[in-house]
Structures are given as C-alpha cells and as structure tokens.
Design brief:
This is Pyridoxamine 5'-phosphate oxidase. InterPro entries: F420H2_bilvrd_red/Heme_oxyg, Pyridox_Oxase_N, Split_barrel_FMN-bd. Pfam families: PNPOx_N. Keywords: Oxidoreductase, Plasmid. The protein is of the alpha+beta class. It is globular. It has a single domain, classed as Electron Transport, Fmn-binding Protein, Chain A (Pnp Oxidase, Chain A, Roll). Strands 1, 2, 3, 4, 5, 6, 7 and 8 form an 8-stranded antiparallel sheet that branches. It contains 3 helices and 8 strands.
C-alpha cells in the first residue's frame, strides 16, 4: 500500500467515530448495524452487547463488510471508506481495557457519561482487521475509488 493512500485512510478513520458494519446471520442474510469505533492504525475496534445478534453472527463467521462516511451537501465532496475485514473477539484484558480507554477519548466533548463505562466483562469487544479497503473520493471524479489490498 502506498504511503499517500495509507495517510488518506488513516485521516478518514480519525475524522469519524461511527461505522455501519454488516455481519452474516445464521440464515445467510446480512445484518447491517451502526456502531461506534476506535482505531489504532488500520486496526479498528468496536464493542457490542454480550448476547447481541452481532456477537452471535461473528461467533459463526468472522467476515464483515463495513462503511465509514458522512453526509455532505456537495456531491463532489463525498468521501468514505468501505472494507472487507475479519472481526475477532478481543480476549486479552489489557488490550480490552486499552480499547475502552481509547473509546472514551474519541468523544472529548462528552464530559460525563449517563452510566458507568462498561468493563471488559460487560461487553464483547471485537478487533477488525481489513483485507480489502476501498477509498471513495469524489473530488477526484464522480465515483472515484482506490482499491487497496491489505
């Protein structure tokens, strides 16, 4: 992956904090949901409920597709990322605690939470490792994408 594309991907990841992630249900239908995320380089992390449908889906099949973008009134300013990736549970407590601290830092304007921050035992935390990233940038032309294999 060339450095310019990597910097563009990292900038887009750092500008956003929510993504739509699609997992595969047991009946084969995709399930898309919106989740908050944090990233360390190209590795993304998100959390969900212990008994959530996402957690059950990922226990069967670690493959995910995701999209990160934002709304804009200027058609030619559309930018975003989509990825094919694998999502695996974080089982190391030190890594899980780090992710929870990173998540709190992603919301600096949130002075207090209406509830205590969950502990690693209260939630399921997933590490998302991309295999293919599509970088969307309409400023380079209508529908322009750069495809990157990781």
């Amino acid at each position: 992956m060339n450095e310019q594309i990597k910097e563009k991907i990292l900038a887009l990841l750092d500008q956003h904090r929510i993504m739509t992630i699609a997992t595969l249900r047991s009946d084969g239908w995709p399930q898309a949901t919106t989740v908050g995320y944090v990233n360390e380089g190209l590795t993304l992390y998100f959390l969900c409920g212990l008994d959530s449908q996402k957690a059950a889906n990922l226990a069967r099949d670690a493959r995910v597709s995701l999209a990160i973008d934002h709304d804009t009134s200027d058609l030619m300013a559309i930018t975003g990322l989509s990825m094919a990736a694998h999502a695996r549970p974080v089982t190391d407590r030190t890594e899980a605690e780090k992710v929870l601290r990173m998540l709190a830092l992603k919301y600096p304007e949130q002075v207090t939470l209406p509830m205590p921050m969950p502990s690693p035992e209260d939630v399921r935390i997933f590490r998302v490792t991309p295999t293919v990233i599509s970088v969307l940038d309409y400023s380079q032309g209508f529908g322009h994408t750069d495809l990157v294999t990781c």
